[in-house]
Amino acid sequence: MCQPSLSWMGGVKAPGLRGVMCWRISGWIWASVSFGIDAVWTGNHARYVDNPDGPYIEQSVENAGQLGIAMTRKNWEASARVRYLGTYPLTPDNAHRAGDETDVNLRGAYTIGKVQVYGELLNAFDEHGKDVVYWYPAYVAGLDPPGETSETIDCDSGAVNCRMSRAEEPRTLRLGVKIRF
Fold this sequence. Notes:
Layout: E1 5-9, E2 16-25, E3 33-43, E4 63-73, E5 76-85, E6 88-89, E7 97-98, E8 101-112, E9 115-122, E10 130-135, E11 163-167, E12 172-179
Antiparallel strand pairs: 1-2, 2-3, 3-4, 4-5, 5-8, 6-7, 8-9, 9-12, 10-11
């Protein structure tokens, strides 16, 4: 059962907003159809106070949010969720930043008794973003200059790329069966 609400997550240094709405439509075309919307947004302005390298906190995401919609009708379920991860600094001086990322996931399911068959399409638009990005020296044999080590690499020289990341999952179709006992 959906409980409509709107709440302000204040009183902290990273305020945010969360809202939940739901309704049921009836009539001969929309018999027993229920809809729901769930939305969250948060912002962050975290800073170091006395860091000689700079005020920015590495990997401190500045904005993030998601929006989900869902529909149910008898034994059928369908939903979509959009997630956004904003930009963030990779170094305390903010000279290097990670880009933002948005992904969309879709889900459909059909339930018969205690058995549910479902399909999920993850990263529906096949975005090629990065789930996480870091900035640090790391030597990779065959890619970096011979004789270098992680300790001798100078990320600020421009000769070596010190951006490390994990690629976002490619578009993926996941099928499954869930049995309730």
